[in-house]
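With this grant's support, we have settled on a layout for protein records. One resulting record is reproduced below.
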Amino acid sequence: ETIEHVFINCWDAVMFWDVLKRTIKKDIEITTHTIRFLPIEKNESVPLDMIMVLGLFSLWKSRMDVRHAVEKPKSAPQYFTELLCQVKSVFEFTDNTP
């Protein structure tokens, strides 16, 4: 498996990015360059780089569940939701909430 397959071309990844883009109503370009370097504009009000990193990590965790034959594997959206809740709970204690 290649990085491109796991994070871009795999059906799980295609569906995950499609639903995410529709949900946040942003056209995130998902390419080999953008998943490696996260080129996000500084004037963006939504922390797209953080969302992309959480998405990539969610896809990876989901893939590893399957690879390691976890009894009840979680999907990438499940991991993403959990991670987003954790990040939100951290930002609740700061003055600078994105």
